[in-house]
Amino acid sequence: MSDPIIDVRDATKTFGGLTAVDRVSFTVTRGEIFGIAGPNGSGKSTLFNLMTGIPYGPTNGEVRFNGERIDGRPPHAIARSGLCRTFQKDAEFPDLSAIETLQISAVYSGGQSAGQALENARRAIDRVQFDEARAHMPSSELSVYEKKQLMIASALVSEPSVLMLDEPASGLTKPEIERLDALLVDVNKSGVTILLIEHVLSLLLSVSERLLVLNQGAILAEGLPADVVRDPAVAEAYLGGRD
User: Fold this and answer.
1) Of 230, 153, 173, 243, which Cα lies nearest the Cα of 204?
2) Residues 155 and 170 in one domain
3) If you average pLDDT over residues 158-175, what whole number do you get?
4) Which residues form the ABC transporter domain (predicted)?
5) Rounded Cα gap, residues 80 and 36, in angstroms
C-alpha cells in the first residue's frame, strides 16, 4: 500500500473486564475514503475515540499519523496536527449562527487567530455548499441536513488532512443522503482523506474505496467493498436486512 497516512497497530481498549476494541490493526492510504461498518456496540465509535484521544486513548497498541505516534497526545494536539472528527450526535450552539460556531471551532480546535478563524469559517461554509444566506441564522433554526453540513464544516475549518465522520447520514432522507454522497466525494477530491463510520450502506458502499467490518470489537472482514459484502459471515451477521 502506497503512502499510508494512518497506521493503527493492535489497538485495544478495555473497560474493566470488557474489551471494546480488540487488537485492531489497519492502514489508511493518503487520499482515500475508508469505510467502517458493523452493528451497534461493535466498537466503531470507540475506535474513533482512541484514535483521536476524545475522550480517551488506547489501553494498548499504537496509532500513527503521518508516521508519528499520536496515542497519548492531548486531543487538541491531535486535532491541530490534522486529524479531526465528528460525532454521532449533532452538536451546535443553538443561539449562535453557523459562521459564529465555525469561528469558535477554528479558534479552539485549530488554534487560529480571530482573523484566520473568520476567513476559514467562510471557506468551510463554501466547501460544504452551505446556503450563505442561512449561515447567519441561529443554528436552532437549521434543518437536519444543514446541521450535518455545519458538523462537517466544523471539522474542516481546522484544515485537516484527515476527516473522521461518525454516522453523518443519520436522520437524513434519501435525497439528502445523495447530496451528502456528492459532498463527501467533493471534499475527498480536494485532498482530504476520509474515514467514514456509517449504517446507511448505500452511502458507505458508494463512496468507500475499502471497507472494514467490526464484530464485537475485532475485525471481521476488510477489503474492497464488493468483496466484503459477499463474505457470508458479514452478509449474515451485519449487512443482511439493512437498507
Assistant:
1) 243
2) no
3) 95
4) 6-241
5) 24
Cβ contacts of residue 75 below 8 Å, gap of 6+?
52, 53, 54, 55
Compute CA distances 184 → 33, 193, 207, whole Å. Answer: 9, 10, 8
Q: What is the rounded CA–CA span in Å between residue 3 and residue 27?
A: 10
For the chain, the domain total comes to: 2
**Rounded Cα–Cα distance for residues 170 and 155 (Å):** 17
pLDDT digits (tens, 9 = 90+) for 62-96: 999 999 999 999 998 999 899 999 998 776 788 89
Interior CA angle at 40 toward 63 and 75, to 5°? 30
Show the domain range for 183: 1-82+164-243
E strand segments, 30-148: 33-37, 60-65, 68-69, 83-85
Q: Considering the entire predicted model, what is its pTM?
A: 0.92
